[in-house]
Design a protein that fits this description.
45% of the residues lie in helices and 15% in strands. The protein has helices spanning 18-31, 46-74, 123-129, 150-170, 174-191; strands at residues 37-43, 87-90, 115-120, 135-146. The protein starts with 17 loop residues before the first helix and ends in a 5-residue tail after the last helix.
Length: 196
Amino acid sequence: IPEGVARVGRSGRVERNQRQLDVTIRQLWDKVAPGGILVIAEPGTPRGSALVRRARALVLEVARRDAEQNARRMGVSPPDLSAVEAYVVAPCQHDGACPIKEEHREDGFATWCHFPQRALRSKYAREMNQSARPYQDEKFSYVVLRKQSRAEARRRAARATRRARDARVDDDSDEAEESHHESVVRESVEEWSRVI
């Protein structure tokens, strides 16, 4: 497992108890640096989706409680939700309760949050599966959480947008524009690690 990556669970294996899973998620969140991100990905099964939903709810609840405790210690009124030091980056763009239920009431079918990703198969995998297709579609469930308030993230994004716009207005040449795009990409790579 690469440094900074932890595996929370595996499809087909039931965790010993929910409390142990909650402790693991909390420990992972505690290791995330301020402004950092936690990515939780599981196979795109109902069980994997449920694990991701539980982790999402737990992290957001822990961050809300921490904000409330800090406010009480400082003797100020509790902050609004935009000031809580955690928000969902993806796949949904809200921090409320997950709208996907275990079962649709209208049609009775179970549903879960998952996304397909086409992956190339190695020659060995094609031979083992006796398949001529050079790819397979993998399904996964995931959540990306950032340890920063949504309000602070918006302020930083607005600042970055202003800087980019100002830089472009100052120098309109094609060469300068290309150089600017290269620097934005370089800064993005340094600030955000690639998530696959």
